[in-house]
Amino acid sequence: MMEPVHVSIIYYSSTGTVHALAQAIADGAEKAGARVRLRRVAETAPPEAVESRQEWAQHLADTAHVPSATADDMEWADAVLLGTPTRFGNPASQLRAFIDTLGGLWFQGGLADKVYSAFTASNTAHGGQESTLLALGNTFYHWGGIIVPPGYTDPVQFQSGNPYGTSHVAGDGAPGEVALNAARHQARRVVDIATALKAGRAA
Ligand SMILES: Cc1cc2nc3c(=O)[nH]c(=O)nc-3n(C[C@H](O)[C@H](O)[C@H](O)COP(=O)(O)O)c2cc1C
C-alpha cells in the first residue's frame, strides 16, 4: 500500500485570517487522507511594528505553538500550499523571506515536480488577491512545480469566486463557511492530484 501523500501548508498571517484558512486547508487535506504539516513562517517585522497593532501582537502570541517552517518541510512534501496576506498586491515579505532561504534546495532539484497551490486574504475585494496568487505562481514556475489551482471544480467555487486559489476579504470579518469550504475543497483537490502523481510514479 502506498504511503499517504505528504502535504506542507506554509503560511504567514499577521492577524489570523490566513491562519484560519490554513487550518481549514489542513483539515481538508487530512480528511482527504494526507499526512499534513502546518507551519508558519517566522515573523521578521521588528517588535515595535508588531506591538503597534494589538491584534498583530495577540495573534503572534496565540500561534507561538505552531512550528516554524524549514526547508525540510518543503523537501518532505509531495504537495505544498503557500498562504499569505496581500501586501500592496504582492505576497508578504515574511513569506518571501522564507522562500528566499530555499536557494540551496532549489539548486539540488529538491523543489521540482511537487504540486503547488496558494491562498490569500486582502482587506478589500479588489485589493490584490489575484495578483498575490499569480505572483506566487511566478515562483512555482521557477521551481518546476505542478500548479494545481481550484478553478471552478466544485460548486463552492461559484460562491467563493476565486479560481486562482482560496481567498477572503478580511474587511468583511473572519472567514465564514464559504471561504473555509473553498479552502477544504482546494486542499482535497491538491491531495487528489498529488496522490495520482505519487501512484503513477510508483507504478
Ligand atoms: C503593509 C500592508 C499592505 C497591505 N496591502 C493591501 C492591499 O494591497 N490590498 C488590500 O486589500 N489589503 C492590503 N492590506 C491588508 C491585508 O491584506 C489584510 O489585513 C490581511 O489580508 C489580513 O490577513 P491576516 O489576518 O492573515 O494578517 C495590507 C496590509 C498591510 C499591513
Key traits:
203 residues, alpha/beta, Rossmann fold, seven-stranded mixed sheet, 9 helices, 46% helix, binds flavin mononucleotide, EC 1.6.5.2, Flavodoxin/NO_synth, Flavoprotein_WrbA-like, NAD(P)H dehydrogenase (quinone) activity
Q: How would you characterize the overall build of this protein?
A:
There is one protein chain. The protein is α/β, with parallel strands linked by helices and 203 residues long. The chain has a single domain (6-202), classed as Rossmann fold, CATH 3.40.50. The protein contains nine helices and seven strands. The protein has helices at residues 17-31, 47-51, 54-62, 71-76, 93-99, 103-107, 129-143, 155-160, 177-202, and strands at residues 6-11, 35-40, 79-87, 90-91, 115-122, 146-147, 167-169. Strands 1, 2, 3, 4, 5, 6 and 7 form a seven-stranded mixed beta sheet that branches. Helix 1 crosses helix 9. The longest helix has 26 residues, at 177-202. It is globular and about 55 Å long. Bound molecules: flavin mononucleotide. The site of flavin mononucleotide has 19 residues, from helix 1, strand 3 and strand 5.
Count the E strands: 7
Shape: globular
Q: Could you say what the CATH architecture is?
A: 3-Layer(aba) Sandwich
CATH hierarchy class name:
Alpha Beta
Mean pLDDT across all residues, rounded?
A: 97
| Low-confidence spans | none
CATH topology: Rossmann fold
CATH homology superfamily name: Flavodoxin domain
- Distinct small molecules: flavin mononucleotide
Q: Helices and strands, in N-to-C order?
A: EHEHHHEEHHEHEHEH
